[in-house]
């Protein structure tokens, strides 16, 4: 059962018709078949966050789903978010604060930051660190990243989109 | 005083300025160019069959099933590659008596660690290669693995390589004499046995390589995620017999290295051979599970040490026994003994005492090979030293700051040397100690600690002083016979439009080399930073040099760029003077790309105009004047064999004494790395290093069972530090430039890691004092802390 | 749903995939290699959260982030919402499903233990039709539940918490999102100040989530004071029998469980 199956999805705003083998992950499909190499592979088990993409507006690990499962879905990668300009202020803050070094974890972290800033008003430093808890970075001390996200949050007055997620009380 | 120094001290000088990295923009846009992203025409993929046993004879290998699998193009065994590859031995001549067995790309006769690559499979896709792995049949005869460091040294222990005559790779002794007498008569002696967990780098991007051998012209191009393309150009040429000029190694964006990507890996060497056999590009990316089983490990030490003190708390002597477990051979070409060698030479280094004895034993094990990983040896040396100093402080009733103030080498004592022979040009321990105490508000923290203790809350404060080796000279590797360069070269060109390109042999792995070289070139030459483009990481484009390791990029690479830029500036001003019909160029300067009168600042001629004339209107140059707008220059460090830096760190924790859980509240680092070229870059480098050290202190450890299996080789089980557990980290600086170079910069890349785990260890022990117990092993897991607290 | 069941029955070696957050890593590491994956993540019958007759019905495909924030869950099955922020990481929670977590029954996972604490019932559909299995009978052994091969977990039915009940959850984990070293959910019913019923479920203490029945029994009929709490902690000794492990001895794990239980009961007592 390794024949490719047809899939139809929207990637970075472009309707895309393609084929994928059932065993091919979404991450490999994006990187290999579409040459969208901004989504990185760090562990292939959902532990590092390097492969985050937006699936119907929610960040998910592209390494933990199969390309065929994304049939009919709306996918946005770091390239799409970047080209759209929607994370320009986050990218600028990261750049000016040196919140990246080798850059391998950076797309995943930008996706997490983007989603956090869209859905949570004025996150505290602890909430920022909590949101980043699934993004592994080996180069920075995480602090410049937290500083950059905090700065962007302050400069944006309201969340851009919809639902505010609250934490359940213990 | 020459122009370059003036340029640095100008208010708007790029030296010392926090400039954002130009090459970070593409990384932020998801347009980084990593080897893992690279695709070449007709490229194939390699996967490896790995030994499940830590020590086993290879009886037979059956490849027939694998060869028949879909997409498989080649299956190679150890003997296949041995036909075309020269073996390597990881010894260096200046480590006298060192032994290590020969290594070939794939295992022959024996597998010597669980995870060693035995068979290589090359297929159209990685998935197909992995499918074929399941069809390989290998018959192993299991042998007893050597896992325990004491057992490894006994005569009855099975030896890893029959040619070695024993499992000891290397031993060395240092002795200033009279140590036993000093200890016998000292008022106080404190001692301990310190255990350090084996670590691995866990870079975000795993190891990746594409070897591309083109048989039509005998050209080997290797796209290699490495810190040092030059070293590998040399090695691939020698071991595969391809002329050096026909070997090109390119290191594009690298997803983290920390020293790990400096070393020869069997799979990487195999991939080169596979490409030569196939005449097609072959790619190998280690997946995360393979990374744990094959990336170098580090820091596996058991150190027994004691410190002798007089009744006023002056340290008299230290006596050290370090046994370190490496893999089943010494790594190549940098050896697996440098770490231990540095440990025994760095212990006690910040302090005045001159009586010292140490013994080092480096012992083979059937585990993953070990070698240089960020801060190499410094964290172990610092933890042992600073732990003993704190224990001594306790014994004699001195505060940790007080005992250090009493014993650190005074700031006016330089130049001087450590009892182990390290020469210090000028350090600033006292200044750093004072600055730390202020920065962290130490007295207030102690008062708060006492208050909270009444409520049953246990806080701990720990500090750790360190020195760090940077800017290494050939004394490091070259003297031992390794073809590892300690010099660098730069080619700087003025482009026809008057912009600047600098091609230099130091490399970028995310630490910002390209940015700071650009700053130095811009400041020295006198052009705008935005007009300077820095190119690194390609043996065909840049001069041969030392690349990145041992914190040499800023100090040595920076000086190379500075000297080259000075010479280019002289050339430019000479042409300018001729064009302006001035007698000499000495009344001219260049600022922001415009040649000006040095005194009045009046603008005379743009660099762009000089370039236009030089390139397109050389007929208008005055007779006898030729325009040399490209300069090549090499710089080799002179003077001190290493530029030592120094610093001090502090860690503040809260211990939950019922559960053994530790919350890291805050961390501080004072760093003296000489002239700081870019504070923005240095500070997050230090923080990144601190986090690695905190990871070592609380989380990271490669756990082996007694059959030599790595039990926690995945990101779920090997715990790396993540954002939620890490504290805010405050960084401060003292600046003591080196006078060995004009730039005066020393290195800073490894400083954070050198002392962070020591400060954390002291902080936890500070909290444990209340319970009359202590820990002397890292990582300080809840289980170990519970044990120290009396739970079993 | 019938198609899914039929496809499973017809195949040699099939596995259902829902969120995939645990399954896909296992496939990537070649720990499992089924010849057929049946994607059930779009089955409408397995979706949705509704409340009626004192029971909360949570569809098996409810994603963790929904479990965390869905008002009906927070109101009627609060241990699930309370535990949700501790489950892995945000992106995993966007895809992982409650049914997937409960069916996998990792003993270190939060949701199986909270399902046990709530005394929920599992609605299962298979070749023989529909059946409901109470949580106390659902978790059998390591990764083994009452689900027969091919059966689908359709929904979880949680008896809504009563006004007389207090609840509390916490865990001890090395890092945020890691599997906990020990964790517990408590659901305690009060008759005025006295405990009338108690359900205490632990995670990471054995091959399955474990109800601390002796500790529960020791609470019933008592007021939650310091002495009662101490007695409950002592009773834990007979409830827990953790396996030998390199990272933590069994007695240390019981110690941590005792400490955690004490702290949770104190937190609850402060609100009683």
What does it look like?
The complex is a heterotrimer of chains A (170), B (792) and C (272). Chain A is of the alpha+beta class. Chain A is 34% helix and 15% strand. The model of chain A is unreliable at 166-170 (pLDDT under 50). The mean pLDDT of chain B is 95. The longest helix of chain B is centred in the last third of the chain and has 27 residues, at 553-579. By secondary structure, chain B is of the alpha+beta class. With 272 residues, chain C is an alpha+beta fold. In chain C, the strands form four sheets. Chain C has a five-stranded antiparallel β-sheet. Chain C has a four-stranded antiparallel β-sheet with strand order 10-11-12-13. In chain C, strands 1-2 form a two-stranded parallel ribbon. In chain C, strand 3 and strand 4 (55-59) form a beta hairpin. In chain C, helix 10 (213-219) runs antiparallel to helix 11 (226-239) and helix 11 runs antiparallel to helix 12 (250-271). Chain C is globular, with a radius of gyration of 19 Å. The interface between A and B is large, with 55 and 56 residues.
In short:
Chain B is an alpha+beta fold and 792 residues long. In chain B, 29% of the residues lie in helices and 24% in strands. The longest helix of chain B has 27 residues, at 553-579.
Largest interface: A-B, 55 and 56 residues
Q: Quickly count the helices of chain A.
A: 6
Report on the biggest sheet of chain C. 5 strands, antiparallel
Order of helices and strands of chain A: EEHEEEHHHHH
- The general outline of chain C is globular
Kindly state the mean pLDDT of chain A as a whole number?
Answer: 92
Largest sheet of chain A: 5 strands, mixed
Strand content of chain A: 5-15%
Q: Give the overall silhouette of chain A.
A: elongated
Q: Return Rg of chain C in Å.
A: 19 Å
Number of strands of chain C: 13
């Amino acid at each position: 059962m390794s024949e490719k199956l047809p899939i139809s999805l929207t990637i970075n705003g472009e309707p895309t018709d393609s084929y994928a083998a059932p065993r091919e992950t979404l991450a490999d499909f994006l990187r290999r078949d579409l040459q969208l190499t901004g989504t990185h592979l760090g562990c292939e088990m959902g532990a590092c966050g390097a492969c985050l993409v937006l699936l119907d507006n929610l960040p998910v690990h592209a390494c933990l789903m199969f390309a065929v499962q994304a049939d009919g879905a709306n996918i946005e990668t770091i390239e799409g978010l970047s080209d759209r300009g929607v994370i320009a202020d986050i990218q600028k803050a990261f750049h000016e604060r040196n919140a990246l070094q080798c850059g391998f974890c950076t797309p995943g972290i930008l996706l997490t930051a983007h989603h956090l800033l869209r859905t949570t008003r004025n996150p505290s430093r602890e909430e920022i660190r909590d949101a980043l808890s699934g993004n592994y970075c080996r180069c920075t001390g995480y602090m410049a990243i937290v500083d950059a996200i905090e700065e962007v949050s302050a400069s944006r007055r309201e969340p851009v989109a919809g639902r505010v997620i609250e934490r359940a009380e213990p | 005083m020459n122009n370059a120094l003036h340029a640095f001290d100008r208010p708007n000088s790029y030296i010392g300025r926090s400039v954002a990295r130009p090459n970070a923009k593409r990384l932020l846009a998801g347009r980084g160019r990593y080897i893992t992203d690279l695709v070449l025409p007709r490229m194939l993929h390699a996967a490896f069959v790995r030994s499940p046993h830590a020590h086993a004879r290879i009886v037979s290998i059956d490849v027939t099933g694998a060869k028949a699998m879909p997409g498989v193009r080649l299956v190679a065994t150890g003997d296949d590659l041995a036909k075309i590859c020269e073996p390597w031995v990881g010894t260096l001549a200046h480590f006298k008596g060192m032994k290590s067995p020969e290594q070939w790309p794939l295992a022959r006769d024996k597998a010597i660690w669980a995870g060693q690559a035995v068979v290589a499979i090359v297929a159209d896709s990685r998935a197909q290669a992995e499918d074929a792995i399941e069809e390989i049949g290998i018959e192993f005869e299991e042998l007893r693995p050597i896992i325990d460091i004491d057992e490894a040294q006994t005569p009855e222990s099975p030896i890893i390589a029959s040619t070695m005559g024993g499992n000891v790779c290397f031993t060395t002794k240092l002795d200033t004499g009279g140590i036993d007498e000093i200890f016998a008569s000292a008022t106080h002696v404190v001692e301990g046995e310190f255990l350090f967990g084996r670590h691995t780098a866990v870079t975000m991007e795993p190891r990746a390589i594409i070897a591309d051998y083109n048989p039509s012209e005998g050209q080997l191009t290797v796209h290699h995620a490495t810190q040092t393309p030059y070293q590998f150009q040399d090695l691939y040429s020698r071991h595969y017999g391809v002329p050096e000029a026909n070997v090109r190694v390119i290191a594009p964006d690298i997803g983290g290295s920390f020293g790990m990507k400096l070393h020869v890996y069997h799979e990487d060497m195999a991939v080169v051979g596979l490409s030569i056999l196939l005449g097609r590009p072959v790619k190998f990316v280690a997946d995360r599970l393979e990374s744990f089983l094959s990336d170098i490990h580090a820091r596996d030490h058991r150190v027994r040490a004691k410190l002798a003190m007089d009744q006023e708390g002056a340290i008299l002597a230290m006596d050290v026994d370090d046994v370190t477990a490496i893999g089943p051979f010494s790594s190549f070409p940098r050896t697996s003994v440098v770490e231990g060698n540095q440990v025994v030479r760095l212990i006690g280094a910040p302090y005045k005492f001159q009586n010292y004895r140490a013994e080092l034993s480096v012992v083979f094990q059937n585990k993953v090979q070990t070698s240089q990983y960020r801060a190499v040896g410094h964290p172990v040396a610092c933890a042992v030293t600073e732990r003993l100093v704190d224990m001594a402080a306790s014994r004699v009733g001195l505060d940790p700051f007080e005992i250090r103030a009493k014993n650190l080498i005074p700031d006016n004592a330089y130049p001087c040397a450590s009892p182990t022979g390290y020469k210090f040009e000028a350090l600033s321990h006292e200044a750093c100690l004072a600055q730390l105490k202020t920065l962290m508000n130490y007295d207030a923290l102690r008062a708060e600690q006492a208050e909270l203790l009444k409520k049953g809350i246990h806080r701990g404060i720990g500090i750790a002083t360190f020195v760090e080796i940077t800017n290494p000279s050939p004394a490091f590797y070259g003297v031992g016979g390794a073809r590892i360069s300690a010099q660098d070269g730069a080619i700087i060109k003025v482009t026809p439009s008057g912009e600047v390109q600098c091609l230099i042999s130091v490399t970028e792995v995310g630490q910002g080399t390209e940015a700071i070289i650009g700053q130095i070139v811009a400041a020295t030459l006198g052009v705008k930073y935005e007009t300077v483009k820095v190119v690194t990481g390609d043996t065909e484009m840049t001069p041969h040099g030392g690349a990145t390791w041992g914190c040499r990029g800023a100090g040595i690479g920076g000086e190379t760029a500075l000297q080259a830029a000075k010479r280019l500036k002289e050339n430019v001003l000479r042409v300018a003077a001729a064009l302006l019909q001035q007698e000499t160029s000495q009344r001219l300067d260049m600022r922001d790309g415009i040649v000006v009168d040095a005194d009045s600042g009046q603008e005379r001629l743009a660099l762009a105009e000089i370039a236009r004339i030089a390139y397109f209107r050389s007929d208008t140059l005055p007779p006898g004047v030729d325009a040399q707008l490209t300069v090549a220059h090499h710089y080799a460090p002179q003077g001190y064999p290493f530029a030592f830096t120094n610093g001090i760190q502090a860690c503040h924790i809260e211990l939950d004494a019922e559960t053994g859980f530790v919350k890291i509240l805050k961390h501080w680092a004072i760093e003296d790395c000489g002239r700081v070229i870019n504070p923005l870059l240095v500070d997050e480098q230090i923080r990144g290093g601190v986090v690695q050290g905190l990871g070592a202190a609380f989380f990271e450890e490669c756990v082996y069972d007694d059959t030599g299996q790595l039990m926690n080789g995945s990101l779920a089980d090997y715990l790396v530090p993540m954002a939620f557990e890490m504290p805010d980290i405050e960084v401060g600086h003292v600046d003591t430039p080196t006078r060995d170079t004009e730039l005066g910069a020393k290195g800073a890349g490894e400083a954070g890691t050198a002392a962070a785990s020591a400060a954390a260890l002291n902080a936890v022990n500070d909290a444990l004092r209340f319970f009359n117990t202590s820990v002397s092993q890292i990582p300080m897991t809840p289980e170990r802390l519970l044990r120290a607290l009396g739970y079993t | 749903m019938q198609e899914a069941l039929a496809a499973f029955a017809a195949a040699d070696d099939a596995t259902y995939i829902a969120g995939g957050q645990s399954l896909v890593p296992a496939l990537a590491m070649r720990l499992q290699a089924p010849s057929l994956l049946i994607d059930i993540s779009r089955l409408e019958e397995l979706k949705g959260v509704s409340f009626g007759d004192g029971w909360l019905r949570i569809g098996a495909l409810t994603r963790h982030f929904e479990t965390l924030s869905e008002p009906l869950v927070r109101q009627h099955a609060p241990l699930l919402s309370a535990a949700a922020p501790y489950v892995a990481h945000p992106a995993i929670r966007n895809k992982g499903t409650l049914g997937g977590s409960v069916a996998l029954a990792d003993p270190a996972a939060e949701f199986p233990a909270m399902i046990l604490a709530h005394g929920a019932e599992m609605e299962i559909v298979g070749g023989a039709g529909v059946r409901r299995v109470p949580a106390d009978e659902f978790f059998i052994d390591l990764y083994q539940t009452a689900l027969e091969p091919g059966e689908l977990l359709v929904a979880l039915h949680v008896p809504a918490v009563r006004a007389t009940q207090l609840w509390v959850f916490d865990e001890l984990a090395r890092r945020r999102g890691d599997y906990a070293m020990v964790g517990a959910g408590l659901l305690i019913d009060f008759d005025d100040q006295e405990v009338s019923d108690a359900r205490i479920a632990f995670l990471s203490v054995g091959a399955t989530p474990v109800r601390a029945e002796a500790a529960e029994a020791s609470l019933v009929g008592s007021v939650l004071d310091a002495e009662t709490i101490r007695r409950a902690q002592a009773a834990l000794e007979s409830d827990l029998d953790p396996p030998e492990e390199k990272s933590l001895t069994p007695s240390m794990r019981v110690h941590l469980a005792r400490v955690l239980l004490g702290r949770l009961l104190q937190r609850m007592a402060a609100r009683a």
